[in-house]
Amino acid sequence: MSAIVSIREVVKEYHLGKVVVPALRGVSLEVNKGEFISIAGPSGSGKTTLLNLIGCVDTATRGTVEVAGQNTASLSERQLTSLRLDTIGFIFQSFNLVSVLSVFQNVEFPLLLQNRLSKEARRARVMQLLEQVGLATHAKHRPNELSGGQRQRVAVARALVTDPQIVLADEPTANLDSVTGQAIIDLMKALNVQKGTTFIFSTHDQKVMSHANAVVLLADGKITGRTTPDALPAHLTAPKPEALAS
């Protein structure tokens, strides 16, 4: 099985005035095509930073980040934009939907940026995804007319509309109650199985980790292990508080 993401000895440092803050400290990781993998660790461990490097929205201070066979450090800004748009889908903890656009328009937006499909083909693709996430009847609604779970399902549809090779999800269930969060993970897992899409998601929720093929443990900017869900350390099994309803 070939690696779709390859990270070697990556260091990421942020400069706050004269202070250097290390976010990642020599991380190496390979993710194979079709994996459903969880990056687990407490807040501040470097999970979001790692996803941002894979998603080409940030660059490493040192080390190598390869995505879909391309060394991201050697790409121009235009090439990075194309890689993000064509290869990677993003699901954010805070949904990141455009409030003035309808559900349909939010999901269609990446296709408009690609500018490859006709209006009819875009509509067919968007409605297919909305049907898959159970929101075809909400196509004309605005995000503020939806519950938290519905908004996250719109975000899932938007992430998948370009048929990406990789979907990155940063704490995708953090703002959802446990039942709705479970439904989102089930949806992601089903699409992973059906389409072979690689999913890499960060979480500190053991229930979410339990669905992964593998769990990468991150602490203080370092990978401390790679394990299976049933072999997780006890300190990662704390229950998750209730949040937004579906």
Task: Name the features.
246 residues, alpha/beta, six-stranded mixed beta sheet, four-stranded antiparallel beta sheet, disordered C terminus
How would you describe this structure to a colleague?
The protein is α/β, with parallel strands linked by helices and 246 residues long. It contains seven helices and ten strands. Strands 6-7-8-3-9-10 form a six-stranded mixed β-sheet, with helices on both faces. The protein has a four-stranded antiparallel β-sheet with strand order 2-1-4-5. The longest helix has 18 residues, at 178-195. It starts with a strand and ends in a 19-residue tail after the last strand.
**Which radius of gyration do the C-alpha atoms yield?**
18 Å
- Main beta-sheet strand count, sense and barrel state: 6 strands, mixed
Shape designation: globular
Separation, N- and C-terminal Cα atoms: 37 Å
Structural class: alpha/beta
**Residue runs with pLDDT of under 50 for 5 or more positions:** 238-246
Measured by DSSP, the beta-strand proportion falls in 25-35%
The ordered H/E elements are EEEHEEHEHHHEHEHEE
Q: Percent range for helical residues? A: 25-40%
Average of per-residue pLDDT values:
90
SS field, number of helical segments: 7
What's the total number of strands?
10
The side-by-side strand order for the widest beta sheet comes to: 6-7-8-3-9-10
